[in-house]
């Protein structure tokens, strides 16, 4: 790909000033960088490109029809729902994504949100800011009952890299983890249908790809 022309559509979505683009510059003959690309700008920017690089910028079938030289789409994220995969396949354009790059961060964030809900952290933060704690006669603030995660059950929809990492953290808190059957996937003995899963869990966390079957879940 040393002679290929690559166009990065949305560098600002990734670059906080510490993004090293040197490997990309070495990989391609020409690297064109755009901090962001509006949907109506994308086709024009990719028209003479051999490689498209996108984090979240959408690449539609209509765009692909206007890019005869495009051979590869690199998605700098795990999900590829911003690319019309069927149209890319029809035109022989390969699509690659990044797997496992943010597993620990995503799992940590999911547990952070679960803890915030269980401990009513937003409610207590608001109460402290309003002076409720300082006004308490016994220096206690017990307005919002909390829930301990130990002994509770977490349902997971999606048990790949991300779901597996969340499951391990949840189990470290003493939670039981149950796995749900994803729509459109072959049934598995270790997965529960949604109508079986939901009555048994105290919380549910989604870690599945966005597809037509999972949209709206």
TrEMBL record:
Which domain of life does the UniProt lineage start with? Bacteria
Domain D-isomer specific 2-hydroxyacid dehydrogenase NAD-binding residues, every copy:
112-217
Q: Which GO terms describe its molecular function?
A: NAD binding; oxidoreductase activity, acting on the CH-OH group of donors, NAD or NADP as acceptor
Q: Name one Pfam family in it.
A: 2-Hacid_dh_C
| InterPro entries in the cross-refs | D-iso_2-hydroxyacid_DH_PdxB, D-isomer_DH_NAD-bd, NAD(P)-bd_dom_sf
| Keywords assigned by UniProt, alphabetized | NAD, Oxidoreductase
Known PANTHER family for this protein?
D-ISOMER SPECIFIC 2-HYDROXYACID DEHYDROGENASE CATALYTIC DOMAIN-CONTAINING PROTEIN-RELATED (PTHR43761:SF1), D-ISOMER SPECIFIC 2-HYDROXYACID DEHYDROGENASE FAMILY PROTEIN (AFU_ORTHOLOGUE AFUA_1G13630) (PTHR43761)
Tell me which family the UniProt entry assigns to this protein.
Belongs to the D-isomer specific 2-hydroxyacid dehydrogenase family.
Recorded protein name is: NAD(P)-dependent oxidoreductase
* Record organism: Pseudomonas citronellolis
